[in-house]
Amino acid sequence: MTKDEALKIVKEQLTEHRYQHTIGVMDTSVELAERFGADSEKAMMAAIFHDYAKFRPKEEMKTIIQEQNLGEDLLRYGSELWHAPVGAYLVEKEAGMEDEEILQAISSHTSGRVGMSMLEKIIFLADYIEPGRHFPGVEDVREAAKEDLNEAVKQSLMNTITFLMKRNQLVFPETLHTYNDIVRQQGGKNE
Description:
With 191 residues, this protein is mainly alpha-helical. The protein contains 10 helices and no strands. The chain has helices at 3-11, 16-36, 40-49, 58-67, 83-95, 100-107, 118-129, 138-145, 149-166, 173-185. Helix 5 (83-95) packs antiparallel against helix 6 and helix 6 (100-107) crosses helix 7.
């Protein structure tokens, strides 16, 4: 599938605003892939499709999560997380994407996961720092992303967890586990 074919498929699923976000994530992911030595074609495709299911009805996403065993525990947390694993499933079924690395990067782009590949980290981070994002802490993460992928991912996770806690919202356990995994990779200790 070419870039133009993928963008055409995705554009039909998104609002214009979300499509522009997707273009920003695509450009950012390619830049990060080139910077850190990842496959820029895979990064581009995963970025294009990362929000494929963003505007699907919640009931449809809930049904897919249940029927496809995508993690019932997801249903106890914010529905903002659902479009990632549902998107990976639908991109495979509806768009014919067969690349497991790309599908996994789509699936984990909202919550992260323990043992994320470089491609997963790139999509997770590109979604967070694309040029259209403007919120406290994003510039620090953009700066970190110039030098250290893990540090930038860790900072984005810290910001997200802190934001949710300040709003008295639940934090999906996998996001906390992802943070801990990155800290361990950086040599952090529990002392």
